[in-house]
User: What shape does this take?
Amino acid sequence: MSDPWQMPTPEQLEEIYRIARFAAAGAGAAGPDLDDVTQNVAERLTKKWNEPHVVEARSRKPEAWQAYVVVAARNACRDFLRRERRLKAREDRANRATDGTDLPVRPNVRRPVDQRTLSPNEYLARRLIVDLIEECLEGRARLVAIHTFVEGLSTREIATLLGLSIRSVNQHKQASVEQLRRRLRADRPEPGTT
Assistant: This one.
């Protein structure tokens, strides 16, 4: 039985890095992503160094250990690349959401209002609402509130736009309304004091 605190030797770490880098490059990682994936694999294997399945893989022939490292690197690379694709897709959706091009084109869908067509009073009212929302809310609740109260989008449109479920959008909407009400009540002067 090995020492429970045993760590890989520098030679073993070098071998892990070499094999992991080769396998990650073969799976499609390049540049800084390749370095990130290689580091991730080495870190995972170092943390799991004394776990039974890793000890068993190390105790077999060197080819079996190398195959284990290759599989770990390929899986880490695939996970990394999938995560990057998902993040890029979310960023693209968010960028399209700001100019309204991601909304479906149907006659019954309300498009975001062009501020140039607003009267001065309507513009001021919208600006005050946006300022209040930006001051009181954060994150997704802020996005949902702006899309709902300023742009007039439906729950389904907001869910599609932000990649959320309809239930989640409704929860964000309800929480933001409650928070905005509390804020407006706190700002309201007491009756009889002016």
